[in-house]
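Dear support,

I submitted the protein below through the web form. The confirmation email said the job was done, but the results page showed an empty box. After a refresh the structure appeared. I'm attaching both so you can tell me whether what I see now is the final result or a partial one.
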Amino acid sequence: MNRKDLIDRLQELYKDEDSRVTVNPHAGQKVAIVYPNTYFVGMSNLGLHIIYEEINLRNDSVCERIFLPEKKELDAYDKTKTPLMSVEMQRPMHQFDVVAFDVTFEMDYFHIPLMLRHGRVPIMGKDRTEFDPIVIAGGPCATFNPEPFADFIDAFIIGEGEGIVSRVLDVIRDGKIEGLDRHAILRQLANVSGVYVPSLYIPIYNEDGEFKGYDIAEGAPKTIKRHFEMLTSGGETVVATNYTEFGAMYIIEVARGCGRHCRFCMAGYCFRVPRVRPLDILKEGVDRAEKLGKKVGLMGAAISDYPEVDELVTYIRSKDMRYSCASLRADSLTQAVVDGLADSGQKTITIAPETGSERLRRVINKGISEEHLKNAATLSAKSGIQHMRLYIMIGLPTETDEDIEAIVGLAERTQAHMAEVGCKGRLTLSINPFIPKPFTPFQWMAMDNQKTVEKKLQYIKKALQKNRRIEVLVESPKEAYIQGVLARGDRRLGAVLAACAADRGSKSFKSEMKAAGLDMDDMNYRERSFDEFLPWSHLDMGMDEGYLEMEWKRSVDEAYTPPCVQGCKRCGVCK
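What the results page shows now:
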């Protein structure tokens, strides 16, 4: 491939899109929203769609998109010395005023320095000049712990991007009009609620290399409070394309946040308050999907928890449209939802009990019983859905051998019940190693040893291998081990990630960590104390001090925390 081929490829992608967004290439402020993965992956991310539209609705700004090229294309970028370019105008990354990363997954951290380098933007924020773009970042990973990639970013949006991204762009625009230098503009951004400027927070380590806190620049806030919106308008696909995982689907966000209090779930804590979109707004989204001839993809933490879910799916079915759901809870599943999924051609019902034992579900506050799983299988059988998938985690705090054995027992009993009620298909166990995440009651806990996790997985697979109706799929413990370091790491990881950019990924991560004198085992397997200042302790998700510690103690006691209700003051977010 030559340079023209690379440009033609981007033009082809753009030409094949069906977009409701008007892009004004002549607008003064040029913004690139960058997804640190391929177009196929990135265009499946609804957050990118929402922010892309918001910026392009501004009269003074144009927003274009940049994605990580596929491997062969990236080779061609290297060979032809072509900088990464936008889909819309094939504008090189370094020519934008603002470069905004949308960071959703830890393993994409490796792609951030890689893309900056290929975009001809200095990888490290400290090396950028007045001629370089201001690099910002948002998304879930930027919210719960931005430190591992903070060296690459000038300013983070902590929380949800709607609304605040426009305030950030206003500050940058006005600062340039006033003739302010880069440092002065970043200083002004630090005064915007919900914006974190990492260069104003210098990490402090003791002589043993232990993180102790931050030396905060004078005038910078001591804590950064996350931003969130109340969802008064729709959140849905704005650019339809077939070149993506959900190409045939029109994604509609039904709700955001979750009030179920599952103690392992970062999203449940970092995106409170639980909010739902009004039914009439969702119906308008369905109407737009109908005009495009798309299947509706309902997105949210637990679609079956939506108060008017039966009315919503009935409306979709009344139009002879198909739909799918991002997630379902067994204890709120209805026959109407399952029947609609069956009519939409869905072959598998997916539920997340997370553990095999009732005891461990009490520890994590999952609130789903085996009877709920049986009921889900029964509803599926009535609708004609033959297959079932269960999401399971191993390595959770307080887990015992009995809990691992319980996974096998649960799988066998569930499959037997499926057969009993007429589901003749397969039960799939999708098993993931547990990774402790910031801003959860388990943030202080040690991650289970990688070798121990591998032995547990081998035991489960061996115990179930004779049952042809049960399939066991597992996530790589090696990759989970790396994710664990990235999830709770500090700013020292920036130099390691930058060094890994030469290999385009995580292949050299362990060796680069060793070269930097950083102990991955210590980062993953060390239990933190409750009074320890963590790399993310200067961020404020709105919860009362001591709330997460209290929830940890409740998990040890296997105490149930009921779901959020209107007017609740338990965690402090709604005060």
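Response: this is the final, complete result; the empty box was a page-load delay. The chain has two domains: 3-225, 248-475+543-556.
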